[in-house]
Protein 1
Amino acid sequence: MDNIRVIEGDLQARDLRFAIAAARFNDYIVESLIRGAVDTLRRHGVSEKNIELVRVPGAFDLPLIVRRLAASSRYDAVVALGAVIRGATAHFDYVAGECAGGLARAAADSGIPVAFGILTTDTIEQAIERAGTKSGNKGADAAVSALELANLMRRLDT
């Protein structure tokens, strides 16, 4: 294993550009995810001029807009943020599944990393925990993934 060349991304900002696509539905949760993502990118040296926030109505709408953002060639990575909280109907399953699948297709089709920062929880309390309290901030986690993947993509291109 000592002779194996390992290629991985790092967390250096360099001149990377990011789009954050965030749902307005469950905004009281998503706002915390946005703050976590922006703060993380800034702490890693990403200039505010290299971060753009695009708002969409809900998580179901994210794949279309993320696909457009990724295809624009303006960004090195896209961070998708939202919160889908289970209710008493099957609505949760459809929204969460279509959102996840659509975001994966957007990344695969565009070749641009799409970081998945969509909370899919059973309760509001679980969402609050994952948006900056007991379980950390999943928006921040998604931003770290986006940063690492953007750097990895650059390394793979050289």
Protein 2
Amino acid sequence: MTKKTTFSDETDLFRASVGEVRAIQHNQVVLRPRPKPKPVPRKTDTLASDPLQNKVDEELELLYQEDSMAFLAPGVQKAVLKKLRKGRYGVHAEIDLHGLNSQQAHHYLLQSIHICTEDGARCILIIHGKGYHSPNTQPVLKNDLNFWLRQHKDVLAFCSAPAKSGGTGALLVLLKLGEKFADDETAF
């Protein structure tokens, strides 16, 4: 290998750009890796963004004990509601609101739906009861759920459950996929 010839002005330029150089005392280097910081999970605050974002356009009429209900979000095909009524979607979770007042049920419902979407549950059964002990034979939770679920951003459809699952005292609810499951697009 031949030695490269350097000119004095190149050497002067190199020395000027490198600056002052210190001689190394020894050729051993002790590497001490910095301790890695402990991982901190991201907190998702369920109350940070209000999940009840959709507006209910029409005036909802009050439901009675044996009235059935159904809802389909805009842009969702009618066949989805038919499949939901026939029980074609497996129930992944069950939420029981028996014995709760309206405020407790609202809080518990929002928490439960958030957990279900985070866990990838698509179809849930909400048991609200028929409201036999409600004043004026108008079930409170049934009417509240009819309003709340229509407003919820993650609800695609809901309908009264089949008789074997609670009939008009329960609802089958179809939810959107959670963000972390968006890549696993499964057909309806």
